[in-house]
Amino acid sequence: MSHISLEGLANSPYSLIINGKKSFSDSNVEIRGKDSIYILISVLLRPTDTTNAYIVSDKILFNTNGNIQSVVLESFAQNANFFVNAQTGCDTVWTAGKPFVIYNQLTIPEGCKLTVEKGVKVLFHNAATLKVEGTLIVNGEKGNEVLFGSDKRGKIYEDQPGQWSGIQFTSKSINNRINFSIIENADIGISQEEISDNDTIPELIFSNSILRNMKNEGLSLAADSYLWNDLTYNILGNNILSKGKETVYIRHSTIAGYSFSFFRDFPLLDFSKSSGKTRIENSIIWGDRSNEVASGGDFIVSNSIIRNFQPVPGNNNISKDPQFKSPFRLDFRPDNLSPAIDAGLSLGISKDLDDKNRDEKPDLGAYEK
Fold it and tell me: What was the pLDDT predicted at 309?
């Protein structure tokens, strides 16, 4: 081969190793019959002022007896704030701009607070964790949600579970509020250590949020929690698992489970090991299993659509297909003939997950028709 080179030569962000030799170009490269050569490619991404993702590119040019061929090189790049086995400061505030990328573990210390404002992207490397010993406050807005997801880019990773560990609340953590967030593609979206206290003040309020694509549980609860206007789907384990003495309120939530692309062998809700108080109201619990709820403790479901062959404690519940617009397309809003329409009681939750006003006869689930 007469010549191999990067089109950008020394100005290229890429470099080549051709048969063990590092260079931007090489000449008279011999390839024996029925043999091959190795070309290794590396890229150096330098910081820029932009906060958006961008693409760097070049070409490898091959000259064989005057015949020019090329291979296009493209890499995604983005400036970011990186944390590797780190702790936040006390009263730290993250604002939108460069994403925050976590390697291994980021800890919010006991007695300290991390506030995450609207539009922030928190990205996690493989198996990374956000450990909350203090307090996490998430202040997203409709259309400007806070994202907790993987640092892997590309369509192949968009809905792949298990790319990072999850958000873990320890027994020291209190007063957590997560509003208008998207949590996706982890092992367990949110997990709690058990807290033994004598009050029912929620250690976690999780509202107006979407939790999806989890390898195990969506939410693994062991402390007092209040969930409302939430959507959970594409969870390989339980959408919600409760395992302690905690008090849990779930209102106007859509808890869905359709196994279009994976096998699911667990009910959507598993409270069988709970000895606490659970109240579920104006919600939809529906999937493709005949029993989607395993109840335990002081467990009552009312004014909800629920799929369960076994009776569930409660009243005014409906056992009919909620007729979502298109579960296959992940649209869990009620269709025109849905039994969820106008079937709820007024609970003081005036807007739905789309930030749309609810009327005096609210629809069940996270969305108002």
Answer: 76
